[in-house]
Amino acid sequence: MPAGDLGYPSPPPSQATETPVEEDDAWVWAQIKAEARRDAESEPALASYLYSTILSHSSLERSLSFHLGNKLCSSTLLSTLLYDLFLNTFSSDPSLRAAAVADLRAARVRDPACVSFSHCLLNYKGFLACQAHRVAHKLWTQSRRPLALALHSRISDVFAVDIHPAAKIGKGILFDHATGVVIGETAVVGNNVSILHHVTLGGTGKACGDRHPKIGDGVLIGAGATILGNVKIGEGAKIGAGSVVLIDVPPRTTAVGNPARLVGGKEKPSRHEECPGESMDHTSFISEWSDYII
Fold first, then answer.
1. Is the peptide bond prior to 259 cis by the omega test (within 30 degrees of 0)?
2. In a 3-state reduction of DSSP, which class is residue 210?
3. Alpha carbon 178 to chain centroid, angstroms
4. What domains, with CATH codes, occur in the chain?
5. Poorest-pLDDT segment among 99-103, 146-150, 276-280
6. Rounded Cα gap, residues 283 and 271, in angstroms
7. Which phi and psi (to 5°) does residue 260 adopt?
8. pTM attached to this predicted model
9. Of 107, 145, 251, 252, whose CB is crowded by the most CB atoms within 10 A?
């Protein structure tokens, strides 16, 4: 969906002095600050909070680092330590900043309850958990595993989202509601994926090594779905709410039920052209699935 369709002006055209990523980052940050100013004026009770969390900062990574530090700190894990950790990580890796912007856009476009970019930045625990996980994953790849695991524990405690720091997650991710999401150590989640609450990407309990699901780009996983084992969910596939998936799901197909079955049958499954991870279409398959529809 173009930015203009959300009631905001479209980002300015690229200039030679800025890369498209830097330009997009700057545009989204400008929108966030404008929204925060508007909200501070309309709701004075939030003015101090909005100033300290957004308006006093010079960049998205500084605001996000400050906010995450305050959210995840404890009596023994100080907010100042976490702020420095987050800021150093975001500042040193442009791909993390680009992923955060893509995740903000994903929430704003796909979730009708997301009223603004600043609302997502401040209040969406799925967004915040995902950004904190990216830092934990970076620490994991740098062999700073005790710190990565400590951060993972705080993310789980505070946001009720349990993502192992070794798990690989793409960009343009929407964790919608996010409560109860569990993603195992060797799981891989592609780009532009939408995952609802109480989704498990887990192991079978019997395997070692590479034992968790691989989720392709553009996949939509409905609330309460469970995907177990080193199985592949193909690009643009749709997993219905409450489904239990134990084998591969082909690209652009829909799997529903416990155990999950392909809509249209395994020999000739129904295929869709849209990208469900972006369209958020949960129900278009119903007429093909059953002749008894309530």
1. yes
2. coil
3. 9
4. 21-162 (1.10.3130.10), 167-293 (2.160.10.10)
5. 276-280
6. 14
7. -65, 140
8. 0.90
9. 107
